[in-house]
Amino acid sequence: MSATNLWLRCETKEFEHRSALTPTTAKKLMDAGFKITVERDPQRIFKDEEFEQVGATLAPHNSWPTAPLDQVIIGLKELPENDTSPLPHTHIMFAHCYKQQGGWKEVLQRWQDGQPTSMLYDLEFLQDDKGRRVAAFGYHAGFAGAAVGALALGEQVGSEGEKGRLGEIKPYENEGKLVSYVKGELTKVEAKLGRKPRALVIGALGRCGRGAVDFFKAAGLNDEDIVKWDMAETAKGGPFNEILEVDIFVNCIYLTSKIPSFVSPESIAAAGEKRSLRVVVDVSCDTTNPNNPIPIYSVNTTFDKPTVDVPGTTAGPPLTVVSIDHLPTLLPREASEAFSTDLLPSLLTLPQAIADRNPRQGKPIAASEAGTGPERVWREAEALFWQKLGESQA
């Protein structure tokens, strides 16, 4: 079996500093026989030289579109929206187009136009034999989301008339420095409110939720100040008045179908002056999903403008939403190392999956044909690609 060529593309999403591969995992892949090419990327947390030092070949910035078709292009975030050119390569990435997000058909059309050689292995849907994602940024997303929510609360509560809003936030070198800074800000909030702030986390038993809870504890909140909900607590269906009684609400669920709203414009209006809720952090960030259970905002926020005000709020304190869709880049080095390490075992099985796919290039397979073996994860992702491509063409 010939060596598999992995090409780490640059990230073009603004403020994105993470990487799908790290120098550590790149070295392990090369030791296993892979050929690794790394595009130069000034915004990646790992310097180009770190990859060069472990033996990777460096390529010019954003040069992947002209790479040979045997190169498997690996990255994280979605490609630029203003490009509709065909995608004839195999891509491993988060494409954000399988749950009918805004523009999903146009995104998948690029792979349709790239046939018969194109393929998308969507990182969000690489699953083990128990249906669990093989690699996810969930923990660091929850951890960072709780941190940004706390910072947003501090900026608001600490300002005259609560008119202050959180300004641009930049990556932290490590978790310790992030926790230390936010802990100081929450101490100021406690002094202002005359009590410790309270938070509610939905999805608390998942990786994302655990990250949020762990951050709040590390930042000084007592256990009784953190309301931890999961499926059992939300089974009765919302909206939930309990959300309006805390200062920060962090949504960490993985949305698969329509569910009753957790909070709504009507429930907010009904609470009036009694509402304590000031900051909503939608880590799940299903902003353009028609089933979003937090229908009180309609735009993604960004690292330079982390919050958006909820419109129509006339009673009680101002209410803001954090809806950044790449929160783990707040801790890019740690988040990248954790994710890439989890992805590594599956990447090591990619050569067999590619070899299996080559004879049927451009021909769909069904999930029932995924078979067994460690490379099954890629065949299931291949089957899902064809399923979603068919849905977009229907």
TrEMBL record:
Alanine dehydrogenase/pyridine nucleotide transhydrogenase N-terminal domain sequence ranges: 7-144
EC number(s) stated in the UniProt entry for this protein: 1.5.1.7
Annotated catalytic residues: 77 (proton acceptor), 96 (proton donor)
Family, as annotated: Belongs to the AlaDH/PNT family.
Pathways involved: Amino-acid biosynthesis; L-lysine biosynthesis via AAA pathway; L-lysine from L-alpha-aminoadipate (fungal route): step 3/3
Key word Cell membrane present: no
Assembly with partners or alone: Monomer.
Residues covered by the Alanine dehydrogenase/pyridine nucleotide transhydrogenase NAD(H)-binding domain: 178-323
Gene3D superfamilies, sorted: NAD(P)-binding Rossmann-like Domain
Reactions it catalyzes: L-saccharopine + NAD(+) + H2O = L-lysine + 2-oxoglutarate + NADH + H(+)
Species of provenance: Leucosporidium creatinivorum
Disulphide bonds in the chain: 208-252
Entry's Gene Ontology BP terms: lysine biosynthetic process via aminoadipic acid
GO molecular function, one term: saccharopine dehydrogenase (NAD+, L-lysine-forming) activity
Coiled-coil regions listed in the entry: none
Keyword field contains Transmembrane helix: no
Chain residues that bind NAD(+): 132, 206-207, 230, 234, 254, 283, 324-327
GO cellular component term of the entry, any: cytoplasm
Official protein name in the record: Saccharopine dehydrogenase [NAD(+), L-lysine-forming]
Keywords: Amino-acid biosynthesis, Disulfide bond, Lysine biosynthesis, NAD, Oxidoreductase
